[in-house]
Design a protein that fits this description.
48% of the residues lie in helices and 12% in strands. By secondary structure, the protein is of the alpha+beta class. Helix 13 crosses helix 14.
Length: 417
């Protein structure tokens, strides 16, 4: 076992930060061991001024007064070929990592990319002492991100990963892109925007996403569970235990009602006077519904009864294991989990998928309502007429003279008749 030394960690982190700030004064540290840098300004000065020493470049980046003493920097993509830029940026990053190792004795991994999201992912590829480069073209970015598991994207946690797979069957970033319509439909705007940007490897370079998207979305989807527990002086009276358990359960019901959560699984936690912990759980086919406006609303007593039955089960199993000794309890807790989505939410998703799988009807503003309905229900007629319209190459009025009489159940293109 190695003892932690937080003061030492902070001191070493400060040493690393001081080195990195020589290359980017606006460096952003998001933890003791994670930093985001924009090394392009340093690289522009270095490549446009070959004879300039590192200390002079650092001073130039830190002070605006020295800008007047330097010639204007050309954008690198105008002055140098991409291959040269890519080679120089990788050499620069390698020298930064080597300098950190020489001064602090610490190795570090790094990722080079066109934005923070890609750089963060790339930094995990060659740990603990390597670096990975992601090209800046659209094709290079897609080739990099599409095979990745969605869990690799910073901001997608375990719960969001489960949700995306369970609801949409999404496992990779490529899946995320291909099912972008469902993402836009299912999630709140902020979350949907983040996920859709991640699917194409885009992120706001001025913004680092510290929070998880799980916090922004529907609580019924992302909350793992909700529990109430109470510690008290050891109690062995069965009636007192049941009363305590009832109060805890009713308090939990109030929270479930306020959050509009519908649990299927109930778990009981019992801590004995000996500090042994017993747990029992049960999962129902139908969820508890504590919405007073719902016709399917459950009674709070229903949950109390389930909790008491679990307590009876725990006591019975404990008595079988220990023939003597009182069932003395010092803590009781009830947890609800496995939340069911609201019916209308799932129905809306099914309806959306069904609608998306059907070709849109071709509407004819010149047809009668009766003909419109007939044609809209006949995919073969619509497809045939669409093909005929696209196949015509001569003037529509000329072909219309020799055209056969129209079937009243067909939709004809108004531009061709």
């Amino acid at each position: 076992f190695v003892k932690s030394d937080f003061k030492f960690y902070k001191r070493k982190s400060a040493e690393v930060k001081a080195i990195l700030e020589e290359y980017d004064p606006k460096l952003k540290m998001y933890s003791l061991d994670e930093a985001y840098m924009d090394i392009m300004p340093y690289l522009e000065v270095k490549m446009n001024n070959n004879t300039m020493a590192h200390e002079a470049i650092t001073k130039h980046l830190n002070t605006t007064a020295s800008n007047n003493n330097l010639k204007a920097q050309l954008p690198l993509h105008e002055a140098f070929p991409d291959s040269t830029i890519h080679t120089d940026v990788q050499n620069l990053l390698n020298s930064i990592r080597q300098k950190v190792k020489d001064i602090t004795g610490l190795s570090c991994s790094a990722g080079i990319a066109s934005n923070f999201l890609l750089a963060k992912i790339a930094s995990d590829f060659n740990k603990p002492d390597g670096q990975y480069f992601v090209g800046s073209t659209e094709q290079q970015i897609q080739d990099f991100v599409q095979p990745l598991s969605i869990r690799k994207v910073n901001g997608i946690g375990r719960v969001m990963e489960k949700t995306l797979y369970g609801v949409c069957g999404i496992e990779t970033v490529k899946d995320l892109f291909e099912k972008r319509a469902e993402i836009q439909y299912l999630f709140k705007p902020a979350t949907a925007t983040f996920l859709l940007r991640a699917s194409i490897g885009y992120s706001d370079c001025n913004k680092h996403r510290e929070d998880s998207v799980e916090e922004e979305d529907d609580e019924a989807i992302h909350r793992k569970g909700i529990s109430h527990e109470r510690t008290f002086a050891p109690i062995s009276s069965w009636s007192d235990l049941c009363n305590r358990l009832e109060m805890i359960t009713l308090s939990l019901v109030q929270d479930l009602r306020e959050r509009n959560l519908m649990p299927k699984t109930v778990t009981l936690k019992v801590k004995l006077a000996t500090f042994d912990i017993l747990t029992r759980a049960v999962t129902r086919n139908t969820a508890f519904v504590f919405d007073q406006n719902s016709t399917l609303s459950s009674s709070p007593q229903d949950l109390v009864d389930v909790a008491v039955n679990l307590l009876k089960e725990a006591k019975r199993d404990r008595d079988k294991m220990m023939n003597k000794g009182r069932f003395t309890v010092r803590l009781l807790g009830v947890r609800c989990s496995n939340f069911q989505l609201h019916k209308e939410t799932q129905f809306s998703l099914d309806k959306f998928r069904q609608k998306a799988s059907q070709p849109p009807p071709i509407l004819n503003p010149y047809a009668s309502p009766k003909r419109e309905v007939v044609a809209a229900n006949s995919n073969e007629v619509v497809a045939a007429n669409s093909t005929n319209c696209l196949a015509k190459t001569s003037h529509p009025k000329e072909e219309a003279k020799d055209a056969p009489p129209r079937n009243l159940g067909q939709i004809s293109c108004p531009m061709c008749t």
